[in-house]
Amino acid sequence: MVVSLEKRGEIAVISVNNPPVNALSHGVRDGILTHIQACDADEAVKAIVIACEGRTFIAGADIKEFGAPPKAPHLPDVVQGIEDVSKPVVAAIHGTALGGGLEVALSCHYRVALTSAKIGLPEVKLGILPGAGGTQRFPRIAGVENALDAIISGRHVKAAEAAKWGVIDQLVEDNVLDAAIAMATAKIAEGPRRTGEMEIDSSVYDQSFFDGFRKSIARKTRGYFAPERCIRCIEAAVVLPLKEGLQRERELFMECMQNPQARALQHMFFADRQVSRIPGIDKTTPRREIKKVGIIGAGTMGGGIAMNFANAGIPVTLLEVQQDALDRGLGVVRKNYDRTAAKGKLTTEAVEARMALFNGTLDYADLSDCDLIIEAVFETMEIKKKVFSSLDAVAKEGAILATNTSYLNVDEIAAITKRPADVLGLHFFSPANVMRLLEIVRAEKTDPAVLATCVDLAKKIGKVGVVAGVCHGFIGNRMLGHYFREASLSVIEGALPEEVDAAMFDFGMPMGPMTVSDMAGLDIGYLNRKGMDRADYETSATDWMDRVVEMDRKGLKVGAGIYDYDEGSRTPKPSATVMAIIEEESAKLGIAREGKTAEEIVERCVLALVNEGAKILGEGMAYRASDIDVVYANGYGFPPYRGGPMHYADHLGLKNVYEKVCGFAEKYGKRWWKPAPLLKELAESGKSFAEYDRENAK
Question: Architecture of 598-695 per CATH?
């Protein structure tokens, strides 16, 4: 049984035991309601405690039931059943009380928690809202401001903070069940204190209050559907009695459930958890112990990479070729930590403890005791081969050697060593100490133990590690080139740069591709193209940009790029100079410039991502379509509420996507728009990328 009942004198203890996180499965819901009703009818029972066995209180819904038809008793009925009990009900909280678990606790009349416990209502992260009274009971007991904070952010709230809000009645260091039984005994005479019967002073929270809150979160929640519905629910809690507020919550909950964003965000939830499941690797695969890490290159990238390991308590040896470069790199690391401390997110002691884990050196021999060595030097094959040749001579047996390349062939780098089985790619994204994505590039001869170690290590240092195969640009950058090509072609064919940016911004990207190019530095792509054959890229998309760079307009860093910038400003302004170049290049190519709709721009840019993603998937360079979605949501700003490019394509329908791509091939030529074989296959068979993932799951 997942729910049991034990009587301790006058106190009934209802215990949930549904490992690993006591999720609210049908059995748990049914068991709680059955025992609650029985205890309420039992005259020998004077008070009730709801507790959980194992490592946590109820930590939310049962994800195994996601997408399945709902089965009675439904959680709102269970929660109401608890609150309606005529005897005091006390929740004994340890671990986390999240989502429906917190809604169960809120329906109890009193709450005792371990000081280490956390609570939260994270439903907004799944595109929905707390649908079992959380939006109505939480503001009544915690206050409207605190409820807005907790529900809109979906964050985990520490028990001490929750106690200040009034959500937790008593904090204890240990023996939470004993404390809950003691409280239940003490409350017998007092009786229930129902959260749903508490009142909110509606005069304090008028329309201007909520409008001000909306304005304060507008930038953070731009494009998301659920946050506004959460606010409307809390507005209802202020002005409506509980029964009517619950009805309003149910209406808005269903609106969220029926919105495509809920499916997209839930897809991302599962996709994030799926990436670490690697075919051919399981718990029995050996792992290598990583006690010390070496980083070659103390620049922005190398220093940022190093911080990830120091943050996880792993000592780092940072190597540079010149002392001034090493000192500068370590100085930047300290400034980053000091900046974090100034924001109150780190103590001075923590900064010093992390800096103590750094050791700087100019000598490769000092890397001889490292278990993992990552090079983060300039992106040229010649330099990287030289580094790996040096590493091969000093690294100990069994050390993992990793390259932080963005594009280069990891097999070719591995071949320079006598130990290719120990080599792989670890592609961090800039800024490396902030960005969550890590592409783990599995080379042809990478040992499974090396791959397994790095997949586990990604989690340890707080990254989402996605495994990719060896190809130019791997997953993310290989696709990105096609996105930027179509954006740039849209400009040369007639769209204004700011129109392209506006279209992609409105689609949900954090900024448009032209602004991104200016921020990254136009000279980076320019120098890359100078080392390539012009037959290998779309010159009509880039020649105008090359002319911009040759005018010393390299982007934001010099105050001029595709856009103009006022001194000290990061705000882009349309440039008459650049528009003249664009128009000249259009004329040179014989293009009669025509305006583009936002829909046209978005279709070209996004479907270019999708088509290349389908090629990557079909070639086995990614294990799953959902892995590609994780890459784009975590590394490239693709809006999570659209579920990543591959899920978005499923939402559009692959038959429709395939027809669009075929239309682009006819209109713009098959060089770049030849449909991916896998896209064609799935479209013609009426299948989706999600079905492809399920059918190919190992």
Answer: Orthogonal Bundle (1.10)
C-beta of residue 492 within 8 angstroms of C-beta of residue 585: yes
Q: Given 10, 43, 65, 123, which residue is catalytic?
A: 123
Contact of 362 with 322, CB cutoff 8 Å: yes
CA–CA dist 273, 265 (Å, integer): 13
Of the residues 103, 320, 493, 499, only one is catalytic, namely 103
The matching CATH number, chosen from 3.30.2130.10, 1.10.1040.50, 2.70.210.12, 3.40.980.10, for 476-588 is: 1.10.1040.50
Is 161 noted as a catalytic residue in this protein?
A: no
Full DSSP string of 656-692 = HHHHHHHHHHHHH-HHHHPPPHHHHHHHHTT--HHHH
pLDDT in tens, 266-285: 999 999 999 999 999 999 99
Task: State the CATH class of domain 3-258.
Answer: alpha beta
Report how far residue 534's alpha carbon sits from residue 647's, in angstroms, rounded to the nearest whole number: 34
Burial of 37 per CB tally in 10 Å (0-12, 13-18, 19+): middle
**pLDDT one-digit tens code per residue, 52-89:** 999 999 999 887 787 788 899 999 999 999 999 999 99
Annotation says 123 is catalytic: yes
| Structure tokens given for 590 | 């014989």
In the chain, the percentage of residues whose pLDDT exceeds 70 is: 100
Please give the average per-residue pLDDT across 31-49, as a whole number: 97
